Amino acid sequence: MRTPVFVLLEIVAGAALFLILRAVNNDYLFFAGYTVLQFIVLSTAWNILGGYCGYVNFGSAGFFALGVYTSVFLYTVNQNLEELMPESLLPLMQAIFPLPLPVLILLGGIVAGLVGLGTGYLTLRLRGVFFAIATLALAVVLQTFVVNWSFVGGSRGAYVIPPSTVPVLGPYIQYLFLLMLLLVILSVTCARLIERSRLGYGFATIRDDELAAEACGVPTLRLKLIATVLSGALMGMAGAPFPYYIGYVEPGSAFDLSYAVNSIAMPMIGGTTWWAGPMLGAVLLGTLQQIATVTISSAVNLLIVGLLLIGFVIAAPDGIVGLWHTWTSRRSKA
Amino acid sequence: MDVNLLINAVIAGLLLGGFYAAVTAGISISFGMLDIVNIAHPAFILLGSYIAYSLNVGFGIDPIAASILMLPAFYALGAFVYQVYYVSFEKFGQESLRGLAFFFGLLFVTEVILLLIFGVDYRSVNAAYIGSSLSIGPMEFPLRLLVPCVVALAMFAALEVFLSRTFIGRAVMAVSQDPTALRLMAVDPTRIKRIAFAISIATASMAGAILIVIQPVIPSVGRDYIGRIFAICVLGGLGSLPGTLIAALLLGVIESVTSVFYGPSWAPAVSFGILLLTLAVRPSGLLGR
């Protein structure tokens, strides 16, 4: 399938989903759906580096929170525009602020991408585990910075009050849902494009045998950096609308380890080598978690995710997609 | 800068460093010597903390004595985890990506289970030495730091003697260098790795007890230690126990001075700074091979 056709199909599917949910007209469905969509973006983003290149990023929560706090920062700047800006710049700034949400998403992506570039540049030249460990520590340190930075609320947290309605669409949550849907389309298209391009083949050589790839002239460091920046930026973009969704952010919730676990577990459970794998995992696991949170408790739903992750990496290393392939090939033989 | 304050910050840092050495010893063995990236180690340490807590509150046993009692249980747990890891990943050479995900899942599951059992309240233990301190001139040695430090150093010395003097200890050192050669000497590398990994988890029992003596714990506190542990391990040079000790003392002092002069909320950033700096400047660490 050609890419324009694929994008068109995605848009049709997205529009259909949105219209169906709108027809049902239940705000909870939008709230729950937003979370699932957010997980699709996160897991697809994680998979660009983790699944295609084989480099594990434990810091998804950190990249996500970078997006969150970029939004919080700009929101706070807007609140205190008169004190922060010199007289001369004030009219200009008042014209620019408040920044529309799509711009915030873009900026969140840029910030997270730059941090990814920096971390990657320092640690990607070494063995893969060092990168993994550095990302884990990165999340802790970013959290430390945010806790100590009173401008964005510090450990007290910050309130971000979204407008209750938007023109044309109506409820604000529908607008957020639509934006997240666009991000899903963007990230999935991105992942699919990579998979079929020179870039994707380069990533695959790194995953399979980095030394051999290097010896064949594959610019491994550059490719790894591209993957890290792309993946980090998408995670940051997923985080940027979060304060407007939740209304109140504190470091503990923005840096929640469950983001890191989910964005690893979802591709692992879905399947890491195909763009649809992370999406499949995110939809299944995300929906399951929504149900478990409502019916049992949120701690138990995290336990389920962890156990599923362990179970799948042990028993079904290629995820659901892998299981499907084994099953169909066995059937065709028989 | 107040000199007295500085001296006491350095002392507290050295004592804290001894504790960090105990926390890192396990990782130094599993990650440094066996190439098993056990990021779930902090979770095992917290498991040790909570077991020591339960025994302390339930039966009034001293937390450190309790941890010594629990050593065989942790050894068995470690052997079991290694067996699962070996059968599922190492045997097929798939340890990198999936092995990491496995340990990450283990970290998360342990944390959530502790959360479900003990809740999010801070838990602490009672022992005679908690609360009092020893003073020599202007220098203060809080016993709640001094006792753990001594225990940690004793454990560290025992490990070092075991690894450098006994047959199995030397085999552990050898398996990290050349498993094939070890096999030619009629030693089963898998068995040696299982023993070594089990020992590394056993150290988590003691490290956990020491942790809960030093500070009250909640299930998520383990995460704060991941950065520290790996920073120390990398800075010390992978697999070098003396290097680990030096690095632990160094990190302890730097962190303690940072938190005294800039505020404790900045302390976690120190370890990451050191980790990045080490990886960028000298990835083989202080006493690396």
Question: How would the blueprint of this fold be written?
Answer:
The complex is a heterodimer of chains A (334) and B (289).
Chain A: H1 3-24, H2 27-53, H3 60-79, H4 81-84, H5 90-96, H6 101-123, H7 128-148, E1 158-159, E2 165-166, E3 170-171, H8 172-195, H9 198-208, H10 210-215, H11 220-239, H12 242-246, E4 248-249, H13 251-254, H14 257-270, H15 276-295, H16 298-315, H17 319-333
Antiparallel strand pairs in A: 1-4, 2-3
Chain B: H1 3-33, H2 41-59, H3 63-69, H4 71-88, H5 95-118, E1 133-136, E2 139-142, H6 143-165, H7 167-177, H8 179-184, H9 189-214, H10 221-236, H11 241-262, H12 267-281
Antiparallel strand pairs in B: 1-2
Helix pairs in contact in B: 1-6, 1-9, 1-10, 1-11, 2-3, 2-5, 2-9, 2-10, 3-9, 4-9, 6-7, 6-9, 7-9, 10-11, 10-12, 11-12
List the main descriptive attributes of the protein structure presented here.
heterodimer, A: 334 residues, mainly alpha, two-stranded antiparallel ribbon, globular, B: 289 residues, ABC transporter involved in vitamin B12 uptake, BtuC, 12 helices, 3% strand
Describe this entry's structure for a reader.
- The complex is a heterodimer of chains A (334) and B (289).
- Chain A is mainly α.
- In chain A, 78% of the residues lie in helices and 2% in strands.
- The mean pLDDT of chain A is 86.
- In chain B, a hairpin with a 2-residue loop joins strand 1 and strand 2.
- Chain B is 75% helix and 3% strand.
- With 289 residues, chain B is mainly alpha-helical.
- The interface between A and B is large, with 43 and 44 residues.
Strand content of chain B: under 5%
How many DSSP-defined strands of chain A? 4
Number of structural domains of chain B: 1
Percentage of residues in helical conformation of chain B: over 70%
CATH C-level class of chain B is Mainly Alpha
The total of helices of chain A stands at 17
Q: What would the average pLDDT of chain B be, to the nearest integer? A: 84
Question: Widest sheet of chain A: strand order?
Answer: 1-4
CATH architecture of chain B: Orthogonal Bundle
Strand order of the largest sheet of chain B: 1-2
Outline the low-pLDDT stretches of chain B. Answer: none
- Identify the overall geometry of chain A: globular
Main sheet of chain A, how many strands, which sense, barrel? 2 strands, antiparallel
Let me know the average pLDDT of chain A: 86
